[in-house]
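2024-03-11 09:14:02 DEBUG pipeline.ingest accepted 1 chain
2024-03-11 09:14:02 DEBUG pipeline.ingest length=578
2024-03-11 09:14:03 DEBUG pipeline.predict start
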Amino acid sequence: MGIRFRVNAAISFIAVIFLLVTAFILIDDRRQSINEEIEAGTRVTVQLLESVALSRFPLMEGADPVEGLAGFLRRAGRVRANEIRLYDQSGVLVYESPPSDYKQGLWAPAWFSHLMSPGDRNFQLNLPFGSIVITPDSSRSVLDAWDELKRFGLILLIFFVSLNVAIFGLLGRAMRPLKGILAGMSLLEKGDLSIRLPEYKSPEFDAIGHTFNRMAATLHDALAQNARLALVAQQSSDAILIVDLEGKVSFWNPSAERLFGFSSEEILGQSVDRIVPHIGLAQHVAVQERVSTSQKIEQYESQRLKKNGEVVDVEVSVAPLVDPETKQLMGQISVLRDMTDYKSRISAEMELQQNKRLTQIIQEKLEEERKSIARELHDEMGQNLTAIKTIGTAIANRDSDEESITRQNALTIVEVTSRIYDMVHSIIRELRPSALDHLGLEDAIFELCERHRRANSDLDLKLDFDGGLNGYDEYVNITVYRVIQECLTNAAKHAGASCVSITVSNLLVESNLARIEIKVQDDGKGLDVDLSESRRFGLLGMRERVQAFSGDIQIESDPGTGTLITADMTVKLDSDKD
């Protein structure tokens, strides 16, 4: 059992003894009070009845004194805590006092009544015309004492519970630092010399904490001074090796083992030339000569040989190892860092940048081709269709006969030509939205949304711009436009959405750099693994366009819960536009 429970139990035991003694004193005092109260009340009652019965009723002529006294007793009721019974000369009960109305029906427990009651003692007053029997009744006083004892017991119980809870909590709070001290001692035992205890509010615990910290600091300084260099060498992620004046390896850390594949047993005492490729020997010899003159050479790129014969790219730093007392050269310390991953990462990043640039060039060329095709369709086919429509209208107008086959054929030609003309203009809008060239990006997006509203009458489409979008070049505009166009097409045709919300935000990052965020939320059936190839191609095209501007696309969707597509791209402002 912990000290916290032992102290709490001791205090609780003392509190119980105190409460029992207090209860005994109160009960004994109350018992004496009840006894004195009953005796005093009985004496008063006896004196009163004796005075009234002997001095008043016998003097009344022609009146029955027994009935007169009985009438007096009925009017008087109970006298103090006494029961009064009146008997005539023949011993017949003439009057008995009524029961007390005070706390009627309530009684103290029998054991408590027996403990507190002074005892039943009858007083008989003999009269010339009968007798009066007075019986003291202490049950009401005992009941009052019982009620008081219950209230006092409840107060004592609350006090006892509160005392225990308070003491238990205070002891727990006061002894809480012991856990930290024990944990610190346990860590110190395991060899963790860096552990330190905090400051404590209690002066006793604070003194223990300061003593512990001083002891730990002394041990730590004593051991760290000897082990620091060894730990640095052993735990370094770089390969560290020491070469003596004869060019033999005298130290070889674990990172060197991992990098070159030689264990310490295999390489210690061997020439360092074992890890130098033939092509790099001249450079290695030149570095050694410079270091032998106490020169330090840092971070030059070279190559080294692994145990399996593989050549690895490394970054080498070499420094002279000098005896601190004699200042004589003892050897050389070499630190080698594997550059394979770094060079691979740099190569991958360059390739990624080239791919992004290539993708951007492809998209730019593609848009130029679309623009050229749209122009050709508009200039050549549009004019030809207009000419055909004009010729058909002229032929139809020459023939006044409504039923003429020539007129009907001409009108058919005009009708078909009109449909082809509308189709060509629709293709032109898909290839190259003319609004981008004449109205600007915001108006082009608005016109795109209006076309989708007209094409899908049941679609609730909301568009919101946060910041101006008319300050970018042609390729940024077409990228934003195509992303929104593809999202709207997916939501209307594939997702079966009834509500689409589009938000385009423009945040200025620097004076000539901005961040454009496009969010398209629909309530359609969501994306799943069974995407059609056409839809996969559309999403891939969007991602490639956005990545060309150092951005990315995030798709959040579950089947049946709709889709949120977020495109985030960083672009440069077109200085030629406002």
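2024-03-11 09:14:41 DEBUG pipeline.report The CA atoms of residues 93 and 316 lie 128 Å apart.
2024-03-11 09:14:41 DEBUG pipeline.predict end
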